[in-house]
Design brief:
With about 220 residues, the chain is α/β, with parallel strands linked by helices. It is about 50% helix and about 10% strand. It is built from 10 helices and 5 strands, in the order E-H-E-H-E-H-E-H-E-H-H-H-H-H-H.
Length: about 220
Amino acid sequence: MASSPETTVWIVEDDDRLRETLVYLLDHTTAIACPQAFSSCEEALDMIRAYQARQRQWARPDVLLLDINLPGRSGLDALPQFKALLPDLQIVMLTIRDETDTIFTAFRAGASGYLLKNASVDQIIAAIREARNGGTLMPAPVAKKVLAFFHGQGAAPDYGLSKREKEVLAEMTEGYTQKQIANRLFISANTVNTHIQHIYEKLHVHSGIEAVAKALRERLV
């Protein structure tokens, strides 16, 4: 009997063609499956509640690709509800919206990643895998907006980060995945993950985006 896919992805996207294309691409990607796709947040939330009401095992999504401009409830408005129902769900925004306020609203509400709809298939898959592993992926245009927002926000405090931890954190602020950081710093992926866990502990944060936001806000890198 075949083992279950490593990562289960749900999609909320009202553009039928894009939604169907994403489902096809993800279902044909190694170790990823996309069994559910919806055109509105209400449909997805109702499905989660229906599954939970059955009080039995079900294939919970690991990652949700979520649009913002949707009929009915917007992705930003629904994001906290998804997190309330499934606290471990990693949510990656996939949208045309690139305003700084919108980006930060999404991250404050619990998003794990933020992609623009002109992202490549490879970027989308990388963001899904990074979110599944507890990391964060921001493409360059989004990262630049984050950096501009926090530029000049005071002197950097000392959190006791090692030289290598600062190097890893700097790579994270550039939007690189854990695998890419490992390749760029010539260390193993496991070592990168260990450094990231130490960074979380020292910065008193619980996710990649919190670490990146704190690093940029307090000018740690």
